[in-house]
Amino acid sequence: MNTTPLLKNVWYFGLPSSAVALSRMKSVTICGEPLVFFRRQDGTVAAVRNLCPHRGIPLNYGRMVGDEIECPYHGWRFNGQGVCTAIPSLVEGQDLDPGKIRVQSYPVAEGQGMIWVFIGEKGTAKSVPSAPPQRPEQAPPIPPMPYFAKDKGPDLLDVVEFPCHIDHAVIGLMDPAHGPYIHKSWFWRNERSVYEKAKKFAPVPYGFQMVRHQPSKNSFAYRIFGSAPTTEITFTLPSVRVEHVQVGAKNFVSFTALTPIEERRTRVTQMVFWDMPWLLAVKPLIRQFMKVFLNQDLQAVAKQQDGLKFDPNLMLIRDADTQAKWYYGLKDAWFKSEQGRESFINPVKETTLRWRT
Description:
CATH superfamily of the largest domain: Naphthalene 1,2-dioxygenase Alpha Subunit, Chain A, domain 1
Distance between the termini: 24 Å
Number of domains: 2
Number of strands: 19
Largest sheet: 8 strands, antiparallel
Order of helices and strands: EEEEEEEEEEEEHHEEEEEEHHE
């Protein structure tokens, strides 16, 4: 199995909260769909399809007027529900009702410095659009971080675009065996530090988790936390990886969200959160560590594309690639549940995986 269709009817990471200022817009593409996010005067964020239904110009080239977007071409205005509220060219006696014209709107959720958007099946945006299935309450939930305040944003943030399908980005980032080769460095590990590991895994709703354990002895970077850190790593659909490190009552989280831009482009957003005051002293080092790590993965994925263009049959082996098999199994279970063939059944079972790294 090489790649599978992009997941729909799920919550994707849209943007960091800091990317959308008050009364400002920010455009992105997700699953091949053009979106524009905008922050209204009460601080809430809305998202609509970033194309004016009149002549197709992207709405983000316009401006905000109050809580509405004004198209730059003819001044048509749209609110956060995607409803047209004004067409300046209309004169008395012309029976066109602007309120019957809409652009597609998207459910949005915001918290802890992150903006999420629910991407449903593709709909239309004609005069009376047929709304796409919008079932955000049935989608895999946005991963919570209850140990941090709701208004806490990331302490560090980095965004990188991978030139690949999201499947290759996901299984590349969760792959435990590439570390000594792709991430070889003095602060991590290399081929000479490889040894056998055994990690326990368990299912979680819509995903799986490497259960809490003490970090490996050959992972030098964990030493910044001091004595006795423990860590757990959780992956959930559609494409979120959360590593939670605990030192006593203190927390450090590496939050990685992958968003498909289109079929062969994936946005990787890496965020770090902590409530450990002593880490402020080494914040520049952590930032550099993040950039180096992500860039190494980017280089590997970019090189991989030179081979994938020949459409080779790929292999997944035990146990190093079992997490990749679980990922494909989770996607397949989601597709089946979406088609109504059966309820979602998590294919992951409790087990211990072993590999050398």
